[in-house]
Specification:
Layout lengths: L12 E2 L6 E12 L4 H14 L5 E5 L10 H9 L4 E4 L2 E2 L2 H7 L2 E4 L1 E2 L8 E6 L3 E3 L2 E3 L4 E5 L2 E5 L4 H23 L4 H8 L3
Parallel strand pairs: 2-3, 3-4, 4-6, 5-7
Antiparallel strand pairs: 1-6, 2-8, 2-11, 9-10, 11-12
Length: 192
C-alpha cells in the first residue's frame, strides 16, 4: 500500500503476550522536569479526563526511567472505556494491570513514580515514536508480534486488503494441507 515500515519499535511489548489491541489513537506526550507534585498529578488527571472512550492512548514520555502507567490510572482508563495504552516508556503495578486485563504495551517495568518528576506536555497533538509521526485519529493494531500504525486516511483500504490477504492465505493453507507442493500453491495464489 506504499506504507513501508509501519511497525513501532520492537522494544514496546504487551504486558500479557496473549493480548491483542486495535483502535483509533489518542496521543499524549510528556517530559521530565522540575514540577510540583500537585501540578504533575493535575496534568495527569487532565489526561485521564480527556482521553476519549474507544481509543488507544499512545504516549511519548520522552523518558526512559519512570513508570507512565500504574494501578489506579489503568483502572480509571479501563472504566472510562479506553481500549488500551501504548507507551515508549515504563509501567508499574503490572500484576494489578494483568489481573484487570487493561491492555498496556510498554518498554519496561519499574516502580519509579512520575510524581513531582514528570509532567504531561501535550494531549491530542502529533508525537514521534521511533521514526513515526503519530496523529490522534490514526489507528494502531498490536499483539505479541508488535504494533503497527495505520494512517487514518488508509484505514478502510487496509481493512479491505487484509480481508483479501486472509482469504488468499487460507486458500494456500488448504492447498498445502491437501498435498499440493508449497511452491505450486504460491505460484497459483501469489501469496505465502
Amino acid at each position: 500500500m506504499g506504507l513501508p515500515k509501519q511497525a513501532l519499535p520492537h522494544s514496546i511489548k504487551p504486558l500479557n503476550p496473549k493480548w491483542k489491541l486495535a483502535g483509533p489513537i489518542f496521543t499524549m506526550s510528556g517530559e521530565v522536569r522540575e514540577v510540583s507534585e500537585d501540578e504533575s498529578m493535575l496534568r495527569w488527571c487532565d489526561f485521564l479526563s480527556q482521553a476519549p472512550a474507544d481509543h488507544v492512548v499512545v504516549c511519548q514520555p520522552n523518558d526512559g526511567e519512570l513508570a507512565h502507567m500504574g494501578e489506579l490510572s489503568s483502572e480509571t482508563l479501563n472504566f472510562r472505556g479506553i481500549r488500551g495504552y501504548v507507551v515508549e516508556g515504563g509501567c508499574r503495578d503490572a500484576d494489578f494491570i494483568l489481573k484487570l486485563g487493561f491492555r498496556v504495551f510498554c518498554r519496561y517495568l519499574t516502580p519509579g513514580d512520575i510524581l513531582g518528576q514528570w509532567c504531561v506536555q501535550t494531549l491530542g497533538e502529533q508525537i514521534r515514536i521511533g521514526s513515526h509521526s503519530i496523529q490522534t485519529g490514526d489507528y494502531i493494531m498490536g499483539d505479541i508480534d508488535g504494533l503497527v500504525l495505520i494512517p487514518k486516511a488508509s484505514v478502510n483500504e487496509c481493512v479491505e486488503r487484509v480481508e483479501e490477504v486472509i482469504h488468499t492465505e487460507n486458500l494456500v493453507r488448504k492447498a498445502i494441507l491437501s498435498g499440493e507442493d508449497p511452491k505450486d500453491a504460491y505460484l497459483k495464489y501469489g501469496r505465502f
